[in-house]
Design goal:
The complex is a heterotetramer.
Chain A lengths: L1 H28 L3 H9 L5 H10 L18 H4 L2 H10 L13 H36 L4 H14 L3 H15 L12 H35 L2 H9 L3 H39 L4 H10 L3 H29 L1 H4 L2
Chain B lengths: L5 E11 L4 E12 L4 E5 L6 H8 L8 E3 L3 E4 L2 E2 L5 H7 L4 E4 L3 H4 L6 H12 L4 H14 L5 H4 L9 H12 L6 E5 L7 H18 L2 E6 L2 H7 L2 E6 L2 E7 H6 L4 H8 L39 H5 L5 E4 L2 E3 L2 H8 L1
Chain D lengths: L1 H24 L1 H13 L1 H16 L3 E2 L9 H4 L3 E2 H6 L41 H37 L1 H16 L2 H12 L3 H29 L1 H8 L4 H37 L8 H8 L11 H28 L1 H7 L1
Antiparallel strand pairs in D: 1-2
Helix pairs in contact in D: 2-13, 3-6, 3-13, 6-7, 6-9, 6-11, 6-13, 7-9, 8-9, 9-11, 11-12, 11-13, 12-13
Classes of the chains: A mainly alpha, B alpha/beta, C alpha+beta, D mainly alpha.
Chain lengths: 328, 327, 673, 340
């Protein structure tokens, strides 16, 4: 198990280096720092002001090789954008935002709280409700509940996330006034009041696909031989579902969670900017509108890190859940 | 002969087909005495496995037990039994083992704990006592060093060992009837003999009646007390092992026994029964074996034969035999 | 038991969600009765450094935290400067060599807000008195290239301003270690600015190389506020401390208590403010004595506050709201005390140019002010087809295109008529603006436009060179779908002339690249005045500021020697008849040349609730919170009234859910084997 | 531009006809087709209608058609849909409710009273016309992107799976790196760097969607490489290239079709998010939704713009989802083999 873990972490690190290379190509070689400077400082400043700004933000160095230093001098390769990009990203020193010079890591810390308070419950409630509903539907397979549930899932899957948010905000926020339309508060009991509506919208929009997927997994497991054995032992239908089927179904469910993690990211991004939650999602949206490349680069990097960590976590939980893998 | 332990009367099982529902098992009547081992023999698709599942009321979803079927066990009709009581019988008074030991155990739980569940479901013992009971059961079915094997996972055991665990699970509550649905078909020869010997020995020591479902006459010859031959959803002949293997009267039973390859018959032509078993819903009107029966005559095509007793313990559903007996 | 598990799980989930406080009050109930003003902001301030902050968003904070030598009178129009930190508004003293100097007497007893940074100079003390040197320090910061102030150019007339900047840069290049020294030490080493002299602690003299009356306006802007050198040195962003740009230390009526740009900014009242205990009545610290009847009648100003000491509010909370619709709806629900009307709900709020009955019934008030701004479509005068190079044909084409743009229709469609159709670059309320002037090329006239097109050689839009409609490109950095609709309005108008104008919306950096390469023909831009003077608009069309020459803000690259001569002459004249005549001749020139199609001057409609007092806006993006007050009890009562949640749909949904699943559960149990 | 899109349309039609004829002879595909028709007739009809409108909207030429008084339009290639709706003339001043006779604000009589099925938007353009124009864009985003992606993904995936070793490691590494970046963020970065426009967005969507196809192709090839019939073919001395072409690709075909159908809806829905962020495609439903999303809070409410775009989007995505669902059961070998 330990060897498996080390190999997995090693491969994860390799992927991180690959992602950084992709980001470097995307954000440094293809875009022109002059434009970023102009956007950050504003159109009315003097040309030397842009040069000054680029210098402050370290955009003025060459890309790969710094010919200013002699061939033997180590700095020929370290005083370049590429090396600087890797060093700072790997040491989590994200520097300042291109748009307004505020320290990115401080804004990340400020944004981390609201983002997690949205994404974690979204993930947990989404998964728990998804599995419960799927169990419920699988339990009543071949009755009209099953057929009705499948049709409803198909319909909810075909509606764009944006429409859920717009109609949700309008119906529940404005007409019914159950929860505040948007906004956030760091005091916990107030935060719950703010997060209720985005969570509701987020869960409902993702529910269709999840329930259909989990139901198929459950029905597949129910038809396996060991379920017949359990019934022959005298297990009641509920015990069969919870003790036997659910435990075995966890394995395919875990593999599918890896696929849903990135959608969690996009979901949070939309929910945060629509509901005014000052999290990493709205920070990214602002970076897009403000052409703030350094923040965007950091967000993509963190997104990738989260995803790789998620993959490793899922593989580990996969091994824990399935003895056949754990003991191999 | 005291009252039979289990008696099936006119059991009819139906499944949905293109046009409404068709019977797959058609008015089967069968009895098993206490401690007796009855072998239910027939080609695959004749409905013998479904009959076994119907006894446990575990018929797969679209299937249904149609009236006027009756399944009397210990004097009670299992069909009318309320669900909680039926659940008490499953794994309690009646145990069952299946054909595919490889997939019949829960892959993510230790085998010991799966047997433990079978015990605790019916008898609220303290954990340590139940644990000991499981060790005892594993020993009883011949699993070496049961204390360690308790924590093994199914993928770590061989096919034979897994079938022994299944048997331990089924015998957990000293059932009065054990249903074995082709227990050895998936095992190779050497293990097959051990499992059959285990079943015979358990039946002898615990007095458990065994309903053995198989298509292999070798198995029947090993441990069966009585035999019933099934064809296209009907029982065509039943009798003691000696009678049926010795002098089968129903043409299909005769054909079956002749087609079993025996060392003695080396060099001879292997017998085979021409034609194919008709599928449910397309059964011919009269005797269902008529199209393939060399002795079929006009009555066979029109009328379903009734049971004719050729000895106190042997009955045949065949017009020819009926004719011979009454003539 | 088994079937119920699923159903019960869902029920619990729903009930928990409902009980999570089925109310939509976003504020802690404890603050219900305090004198707090709740308002919102959409654009986060880029920086709060007074030398750099230039956007309205940052002015919300800098305008309250920093005081200035002079201020605009709250109510008098046109705008009039009054003394604030200075004891009186100085008159210019001409010098023999054509220069001019202003002497500011600094009011006594003014101190900085409490802040740990003063430990650098006061040891145990947490504040200190304001002296003339603090003003000199800020002016030096304006010149410092490292601070990179966008307004450095405007202070060029100050004697020795640019020389000081050069000396400073040379000093830093000579020895790199100098740059790490505190700013005030560096400025002292570089010898300070010749034209900025601190006579003792309470007199500041500013010497100009040439007369520029507009410069006084800059002393009413936070750019020239007194800045303590301790704050700049202490807040350097190292080892956990914030940057000075995020931690302002000033003398103003309010202190910045909390600052999270993504979420919330809070200003607390500064009890050490000079205005609260100044002995003589300093004009900047008192509510104006005389209030005209019209303001009292319209409840814009409450007469009871005349002459009272400022400020009244304890705390001002700015909540970040990115989307307009939720922001406006929270205002309607009473959770924001002031708000801007959203285009979509305009007709529900404003009918025949005043508050609609239902809104008036709620006690709301509507204030309208025309912003000193101009929004325009510009031609790239260097372009061979639409520019000056095309000579007469180009001019006629520009005139024709100008004739078909109907600003009135545009305003009604996109801004609910909130704005004044523009006849010239000068907005209303500025010297030289003539209310009755009608620009002949800005009154929609399709027939005349088509005649002009023919004269220009493009009969019904066909370009003789290739026989197809003349193709022009309209470039914009704004890629939002909403903006696209507005550009399609212009394209549809030009289509009546047979012109095929293609919209090229590109991301900001591609747009900038095109502008720098001059690869654009038509563009749209806006400008909000820094100070109420015609020079601040005409400089956008002056040749030395042309984009192609100096990368300056004259994106139209308009270079007309006669216009430039008039501009130089008019630039620093006082507002007299001679200046008005010069302006009239400049406007006549623009009228014919048509470098711009002037669209409209923006009009701000501000709404405020019944419990907000003295909500009259001041314009010039000046925050007026120090004059405002609130009635908390009335607010709490109205908020409760307007926000009764509808609960029956929740119960209906729950019942429906149970009703749907019950029959299936029953049939399932019956059928079970 | 019009001649290019006409050529593309003709090629598509010829290619589709040849493919259909070829598949019709193959009993396996004919049977699957019939089964699909029996199970999802409505969805197939909807998709056919959408495809028809999409193709009609791609065939355009200059000149001809209803007495144009607008010179600019006359000289621009107008597709069949344009000619049907005459957008230049068939517009109102601003908003008008569905089938209304007077404008929504101010109540002036309309130029075409009662003939706008779903009313008009802020610029007076007919909502039904704009929704129909959105079909071609959606099909382009969903279809065109996949057409770029599938060949590349197959090339890399199959060669990685079949030849293994170095190629496999390299391809797998690139795949993991691309898959590790959340697709939306990568999408945003690509569009911001490559600039806006239908083609750029499709390429960006392609790059992010490519990994999904490649992973499936590689996995399936790995499985098939071990299959007996491949060993048998290799034993007979059949060249690798032929094995891939004759044996591996046909067996992957069904999986590719299913994945194509599933990813189609994902791409179309992703575009709506891009439009919200301001980097979507012009004329798409996403853009219509983004323009209309604030109209819900107008009093009285302006709902028809949002409805027009949403119904179009919903119908297409639902139809494709239903077909993909049915396809998965019909031609997925696993369920099929157990079926026989």
């Amino acid at each position: 198990m330990a060897a498996y873990l080390i190999r997995r972490l090693g491969y994860g690190l390799m992927t991180v280096l690959g992602v950084l290379l992709l980001l470097f190509v995307l954000f440094f070689t293809v875009t022109d720092p002059d434009d970023i400077a102009r956007k950050a400082v504003g159109e009315r400043a003097r040309p030397e002001v842009y040069a000054q700004w680029k210098k402050n933000h370290g955009y003025d160095r060459p890309l790969l090789v710094n010919r200013a230093y002699a061939a033997s001098d180590r700095r020929r390769y370290t005083d370049t954008l590429l090396f600087d990009h890797y060093r700072r990203m790997l040491s989590f020193d994200f520097g300042n935002s291109d748009a307004d010079d505020s320290s990115i890591s401080r804004r990340l810390k400020e944004g981390m709280g609201p983002s997690l308070s949205l994404t974690v419950p979204l993930f947990v409630f989404g998964l728990v409700l998804g599995v419960l509903l799927a169990l419920f539907v699988a339990f009543f397979r071949e009755t009209y509940i099953d057929r009705a549930a499948l049709v409803v899932c198909m319909l909810t899957m075909s509606i764009a996330g944006l429409l859920y948010i717009i109609s949700g905000q309008y119906l529940i926020g404005m007409l019914l006034k159950w929860f505040p339309i948007s906004g956030f508060a760091f005091e916990p009991w107030l935060a719950a009041r703010f997060l209720a509506l985005p969570l509701l919208v987020g869960i409902v929009s993702g529910m269709g696909a999840d329930v259909r997927l989990y139901r198929t997994i459950f029905v597949e497991e129910i038809n396996r031989d060991y379920v017949r054995t359990a019934r022959a032992k005298g297990c009641g239908e509920a015990r069969v579902m919870l003790a036997h089927v659910l435990r075995n179904a966890l394995i395919p469910i875990l593999t599918n969670i890896v696929i849903t993690i990135p959608f969690l990211f996009t979901g949070a991004l939309l929910l945060e900017s629509f509901f005014g939650i000052p999290g990493l999602g709205s920070l990214t949206v602002e970076a897009i509108h403000g052409n703030d490349f350094s923040t965007l680069r950091t967000m993509v990097y963190l997104g990738a890190l989260l995803f790789i960590a998620g993959q490793i976590l899922t593989d580990i939980s996969y091994a824990l859940a399935d003895p056949r893998v754990r003991l191999s | 002969m005291s009252a039979p332990l289990l008696s099936l009367q006119n059991l009819v099982l139906s499944f949905p087909a293109e046009s409404g529902r068709t019977a797959v098992v058609d008015k089967v009547s069968l009895e098993i005495a206490r401690g007796e081992t009855l072998a239910l023999v027939g080609e695959s698709g004749c409905g013998k496995s479904l009959t076994a599942l119907a006894i446990m009321r575990l018929l797969p979803k679209p299937g249904r037990i149609e009236p006027p079927s009756r399944i009397e066990f210990d004097g009670r009709n299992l069909i009318e039994l309320p669900v909680p009581e039926m659940r008490a019988i499953r794994g309690g008074a009646i145990g069952m083992i299946f054909q595919e030991p490889m997939t019949s155990l829960n892959p993510v739980t230790a085998v010991g704990r799966q047997v433990l569940e079978a015990v605790l479901l019916h008898q609220p013992l303290p954990r340590s006592a139940a644990h000991e009971r499981v060790i005892e059961l594993l020993q009883m079915v011949g699993i070496p060093d049961p204390r360690q094997r308790f924590y093994a996972y199914p993928h770590q055991l061989s096919g034979g060992l897994k079938q022994r665990v299944m048997i331990a699970m089924a015998m957990a509550m000293r059932p009065r009837l054990l249903i074995a649905d082709e227990p050895t078909t998936a095992l190779d020869a050497t293990i097959r003999a051990q499992i059959l010997e285990l079943l015979r020995q358990l039946s002898a020591t615990t007095g458990t009646a065994v309903l053995l479902i198989t298509h292999d006459f070798g198995v029947v010859n090993e441990i069966a007390d009585r035999v019933a031959v099934m064809y296209a959803g009907m029982i065509v002949e039943e009798g003691s092992r000696r009678e049926l293997l010795g002098q089968p009267r129903h043409p299909y039973a005769q054909g079956l026994i002749k087609s079993v390859p025996r060392p003695a018959a080396r060099g001879g032509k292997l017998e085979e029964i021409k034609g194919v078993v008709p599928r449910p819903g397309r059964w011919p009107p009269g005797c269902r074996f008529a199209p393939r029966c060399p002795y079929a005559f006009d009555r066979c095509e029109t009328e379903l034969p009734q049971r004719t007793a050729v000895s106190p313990t042997q009955g045949v559903w065949c017009h020819l035999v009926e004719y011979e007996v009454h003539a | 038991m088994s079937g119920a598990v699923g159903r019960r799980g869902i029920m619990i989930g729903l009930v928990v969600l409902a009980l999570a406080g089925c109310s939509n009050d976003p504020y802690p109930s404890a603050d219900g009765n305090k004198k707090i003003l709740y308002t919102s902001f959409s654009e986060a301030p880029k920086t709060l450094d007074p030398a750099v902050a230039y956007t309205t968003a940052s002015h919300l904070i800098t305008g309250n935290v920093y005081d200035t030598l002079l201020e605009y009178h709250f109510l008098k129009r046109p705008y009039q400067l009054i003394a604030a930190l200075a004891e009186r508004v100085p008159a210019p003293e001409p010098h023999a060599d054509g220069g001019v100097s202003y002497r500011f007497q600094i009011r006594d007893g003014i101190a900085f807000q409490d802040d740990p940074c003063f430990a650098l100079s006061q040891g145990a003390g947490r504040s200190r008195k304001v002296v003339a040197a603090d003003f000199a320090f800020e002016l030096a910061r304006l010149a410092d290239p490292a601070v990179n102030s966008p307004l450095a150019g405007s202070f060029a007339p100050v004697l020795g301003f640019s020389q000081f900047a050069e000396r400073l840069t040379a000093l830093r290049q000579a020895d790199a270690a100098v740059a790490n020294l505190p700013a005030n030490v560096q400025y002292a080493r570089a010898g300070g600015i010749a034209g900025v002299i601190a006579h003792g602690e309470r007199e500041l003299e500013i010497v100009l190389s040439e007369a520029k009356p507009q410069l006084l306006y800059f002393f009413a802007m936070p750019f020239t506020t007194p800045v303590p050198w301790e704050a700049v040195a202490y807040y350097d962003g190292r080892d956990g401390r914030e940057h000075f740009a995020d931690h302002p230390v000033g003398t103003g009526p309010y202190r910045l208590a909390s600052y999270d740009k993504q979420y919330r900014m809070v200003l607390e009242r500064n009890d050490a403010w000079y205005g609260r205990h100044a002995l003589d009545a300093a004009p900047g610290s008192q509510f104006p004595g005389e209030i005209d009847a019209e303001d009292i009648a319209s409840r814009a100003i409450d007469a009871g506050y005349a002459g009272r000491r400022l400020p009244f509010l304890e705390r001002i909370v700015f909540v970040r709201e990115r989307e307009d619709i939720p922001r406006f709806n929270k205002f309607l629900q009473g959770y924001y005390d002031e708000g801007h009307i959203v285009k979509e709900s305009f007709d529900a709020v404003v009918q025949n140019d005043s508050l609609s009955p239902q809104m008036a019934a709620r006690g709301m008030r509507l204030d309208k002010t025309v912003e000193p701004s101009i929004f325009y479509i510009g031609f790239n005068m260097d372009d061979p087809v639409v520019g000056a190079a095309a000579g007469e044909r180009g001019r006629k084409l520009r005139q024709a295109m100008s004739l078909v743009i109907d600003s009135k229709a545009y305003l009604e469609l996109f801004l609910n008529a909130r704005g004044v159709p523009a006849q010239s670059p000068l907005p209303p309320g500025l010297f030289g603006y003539d209310r009755d002037y009608r620009n002949p090329y800005r009154q929609p006239d399709l027939a005349r436009a088509q005649k002009l097109m023919a004269e220009a050689g493009y009969r019904n839009g066909i370009d003789p060179a290739n026989g197809a409609p003349l193709k022009l490109s309209f470039d914009t950095p704004n890629t939002t779908a909403q903006a696209l609709l507005q550009y399609q309005f212009y394209v549809a108008a030009w289509r009546q002339l047979g012109l095929d104008v293609e919209i090229n919306a590109s991301t900001y950096n591609q747009f900038q690249a095109k502008v720098r390469r001059g690869a654009y023909q038509l563009f749209t831009w806006g400008w909000i005045a820094d100070f109420p003077d015609p020079e601040n608009f005409f400089f956008l069309l002056e040749c030395s500021n042309a984009q192609s020459k100096s990368g300056g803000p004259n994106t139209a690259n308009f270079c007309q020697p006669q216009f430039d001569r008039l501009y130089q002459e008019m630039k620093s004249l006082p507002n007299d008849a001679h200046r008005a005549d010069l302006i009239r001749r400049m406007l006549a020139l623009l009228e014919a040349e048509r470098p711009w199609i002037e669209l409209f001057h923006n009009e701000e409609y501000a709404l405020s609730h019944a419990w907000v007092v003295n909500a009259k806006p001041m314009g010039l993006s000046y925050p007026t919170y120090k004059y405002m007050d609130v009635k908390p009890e009335l607010r709490a009562q109205l908020q409760a009234e307007w926000n009764v949640p509808l609960r029956w749909p929740l119960y209906l949904a729950l019942i429906l859910m149970v009703a749907v699943t019950l029959p299936a559960v029953r049939t399932f149990y019956r059928e079970r084997q | 531009m019009s001649s290019l899109s006409n050529a593309v349309v003709v090629c598509l039609l010829i290619g589709a006809a040849w493919l259909l004829r070829h598949l019709w002879h193959d009993r396996y595909w004919r049977e699957s087709g019939l089964q699909l028709w029996r199970r999802r007739p409505l969805a197939l009809i909807t998709l056919a209608v959408f495809l028809g409108i999409g193709l009609m909207d791609s065939i355009g030429w200059v000149g001809g058609g209803g007495g144009e008084d607008d010179e600019v339009a006359a000289l621009r290639s107008r597709t069949l849909i344009d000619r049907l709706f005459q957008p230049e003339r068939f517009t109102e001043a601003s908003y008008s409710a569905p089938l209304a006779a007077v404008s929504f604000y101010g109540g002036q009589p309309l130029k075409y009273p009662g003939s706008h099925l779903l009313g008009t938007d802020i610029l007076g353009r007919d909502v039904v016309y704009r929704a129909l124009k959105g079909i071609r864009v959606a099909l382009l985003i969903g279809g065109f992107t996949s057409l770029i992606v599938i060949p590349i993904a197959l090339l890399f995936g199959v060669s990685a799976g079949y030849f293994g070793k170095r190629i496999d490691d390299a391809v797998f590494f690139v795949m993991t790196v691309l898959a590790s970046v959340p697709s939306l963020l990568l999408l945003i970065a690509l569009v911001m760097v490559m600039g806006r426009g239908t083609v750029q967005v499709c390429i960006a969507l392609g790059i992010t969607g490519w990994v999904h196809f490649c992973r499936i192709a590689r996995g399936e090839t790995l499985k098939l490489r071990e299959a007996e019939f491949v060993d048998a073919a290799r034993a007979l001395g059949v060249s690798d290239r032929r094995i891939i072409w004759r044996h591996i690709l046909p067996n992957i075909a069904h999986l590719i079709i299913i994945t194509f159908a599933l990813s189609f809806t994902g791409l179309v829905l992703a575009e709506t998010i891009l439009s919200y962020l301001g980097i979507g495609v012009d004329g798409s439903w996403g853009q219509m939704i983004d323009q209309a999303r604030n109209e819900l809070s107008r009093t009285p409410i302006v709902w028809w713009n949002l409805t027009g775009a949403s119904v179009g989007l919903f119908a297409l995505v639902l139809a494709v989802n239903m077909i993909a669902d049915a396809l998965r059961d019909i031609i997925d070998p696993r369920t099929r083999r157990e079926g026989q």
